[in-house]
Structure formats: structure tokens, C-alpha cells
Amino acid sequence: MMFFATLTGHGLLILLILVDPLLHIPMYFFLWQLSLIDILFTLAIVPKMMSDFLLHKTAISASGCGTQIFLGWALGGTECILLGLMSCDRYMAISKPLGYLLLMNWPLCRQMVLNSWLSSAFNVLVRTVYTMSFPFCGPREIHHFYCELPGVLRLSCEDTLPYEMGVLIGRRRAFSTCSSHLTVVSLFYGAIIFMYMRPISSHTSGQDKVVSVFYTILTPMLNPLIYSLQNKDVVGALGRVLWKRSEYVKM
Fold first, then answer.
1. Can you list the positions of beta strands (E) in the chain?
2. How far apart are CA 206 and CA 209, in angstroms?
3. Gyration radius (Cα) of the chain, Å
4. Quick one: how many helices (H) and strands (E) in the chain?
5. How many other CB atoms are found less than 10 A from the CB of residue 204?
6. The pTM is what?
7. Band of pLDDT at residue 113, cut at 50, 70 and 90
8. 89: closest CA among 15, 10, 172, 177?
9. Out of 3.10.450.50, 1.10.3880.10, 2.40.110.10, 1.20.1070.10, which CATH number does the structure's domain 2-242 have?
């Protein structure tokens, strides 16, 4: 139910932003990119998890595990950067309202989004290849519902602490004066910080599973509700689309 609620909520939000001309502003351009990331993030993890539960077949190939690590971290990293960009966008809208559209022009917005996707993908590609190059010992059993980096690193025969420290360097949080954005940032960044700002040795499999549910399933499902229910423009766009639809049916 959460999986389909996530796809439906984000799909509807993307549709509203694309079809309603009043929503063709930088704020909603970033928002539909965020919805796209959440859809892909959910598709990268939940279908495999559901098939494992339903078929009682909890095995994954090394390439499949590496793919999950790459997609999870690449999409998560892009979302982190995008949330920061959305904070900057809201700051510009509040502090410089008269010059907002000139400063946040469309070429700049597209370049910012493209850079967030490319930089995250390149960074995570290198990290994933390096992670999967470690020698793994023992039963190779990951106590998790998907291939998460800490769970995979625990299987390594080598000391991974230097690599862990390198992963943690450069983490940043974004702030905004908007309540909806603060909520999303708190949920997403909070869970990730708690998950990754601790040594692997202090992790427990049960705790990791619970925390991972927040940023892989719960947050993507709640994002469209948080952004749409508190936003009169989105609610208005939904009303206009439904009204046009009803008028078309009458004709």
C-alpha cells in the first residue's frame, strides 16, 4: 500500500506541475525533479524487497547488489543536493522577490539540476566500484531488506574504517524558512545522518532496517503529501485540473 501510495502521489504531483502553466516556475521545477527521484528511489528497492517476501527467495547476485548500492546512493545523493538547491531557491524568493525570476532563470535551474544528477552519479559510481572490490568472507549474509552500504561493508575481510571516514567527509545540511521543506529535510537528512555518521561497528541489523525504512519508503511516500497539502498553488492546480476534467466529461 505504501509503495502504490508513493507512485500515485508523486505521479499526480508531476502531472499537475507539467500540465498547469501557473506551476511553471523554478520552485515547482525542482519539486517535480524531487518527485521523480523519489519514484526511482522506491522502484530501485521496494519491488525486489516485495518479491523476496512473497517468494521467500532472499538471494541477490553480486552485480544486483552493486546496482542497488549505486542506485540507492546516487538517487539519495541527488536528493540531498536537490534539497539544498531548493533551500537556496526559497531563500532567493524570500530575500530578493523583485529579482527572483531574473536570478533563478531557466538555464540556471536546468544546469543546477543536471549538475546534481551528474555529480552524484559519478561520485557514487566510483564509491560503488570500490566497495564491491573488497574481499568478502563468511556466509555473505546481509541482515537487511536490501543491499545497504554498511551491511555490505560488514562482510569485508579487510579494515574498512579509512574508507568509512572518507565516505563521511563533506556532509552538509540545508535549511529553509519554509515549513514543508524543513519537514522533508528533517526526515530525509535526519535518518541519513543517524545511519551514516556512526562507525559501522556501532550498527545493529535491526536498527539499520528501521532507520532505512524512513528514507527509502516512508519519506518518498510522505513527500507529495507534505508539499501539496501545505501548498495552495498545488491544491489550486488540482482543483483546476479536476474542474476541466468534469467539464470535458459533461460535454
1. none
2. 5
3. 20
4. 11, 0
5. 9
6. 0.66
7. very high
8. 177
9. 1.20.1070.10
Determine how many CB atoms are found less than 10 A away from the CB of residue 191: 19
DSSP class of 30: H
Question: What's the pLDDT band for 77 if we cut at 50, 70, 90?
Answer: confident
Identify the helix (H) or strand (E) that includes residue 145. none
What SS3 state is found at 156? strand
Q: What is the dihedral of CA 113, 119, 122, 125, to 10 degrees?
A: -80
In terms of C-beta density within 10 A (0-12 exposed, 13-18 middle, 19 or more buried), how is residue 132 classed?
middle
The stretch 10-15 carries a mean pLDDT of: 88
Q: What do you get for the CA distance between the two ends of the chain, in Å? A: 35
Contacts of 63 (CB under 8 A, 6+ apart): none
Give the distance, in angstroms, between the CA of residue 201 and the centroid of all CA atoms in the same chain.
26
Q: Which residues pair with 136 in a beta bridge?
A: 156
Cα 84 to Cα 12, 55, 130, 179, distances in angstroms: 24, 40, 27, 15
**Which three three-digit cell numbers place residue 164?**
568509512
Between CA 104 and CA 27 the distance in angstroms is 9
